[in-house]
Amino acid sequence: EYLEMVIQYGFVTIFVAAFPLAPLLALVNNLLEMRLDSFKFVAQLRRPIGFKSKDIGIWSDILAAVGKIAVVCNAYIIAFSSDFLPMMLFAMDFREKNAKRKNMLSGT
């Protein structure tokens, strides 16, 4: 079950900038899956035997790595698919040319 949830978390977080409806669709999927799993446990299967565990183990490290990858990936998606970088480069070039022009006119 952890593998399925981590894969879904990865897709949602990594590509949220490209497909903003992904978190909403993941929520609907999880609600539906939760209802179906609860019906399966109540009506069709025996009660599972519980056992203690300290934490979720290696999965927390995997989730942290996916989170870091998602930040970098979303930054690249936003930077290269929007007009942000061209506008910033144009503004920097314009400021540089404007400063040179002022220096030439003032004689410094």
Largest sheet: none
Low-confidence stretches: none
What portion of residues is helical? over 70%
User: How many β-strands, per DSSP?
Assistant: 0
- Share of β-strand residues: under 5%
Total number of helical segments? 4
Given helix and strand content, the structural type is mainly alpha
Specify Rg, calculated over alpha carbons: 25 Å
Mean pLDDT: 84
Description:
The chain is mainly alpha-helical and 108 residues long. Helix content is 77%, strand content 0%. It contains 4 helices and no strands. It has helices at residues 2-14, 22-44, 58-81, 84-106. Helix 1 runs parallel beside helix 3 (58-81). The longest helix has 24 residues, at 58-81. The mean pLDDT is 84.
List keywords for this structure.
about 75% helix; about 110 residues; elongated; mainly alpha; 4 helices
Topology summary:
Elements: H1 2-14, H2 22-44, H3 58-81, H4 84-106
Helix pairs in contact: 1-3
Question: Can you summarize this structure?
Answer:
The protein is mainly alpha-helical and 108 residues long. It has four helices and no strands.
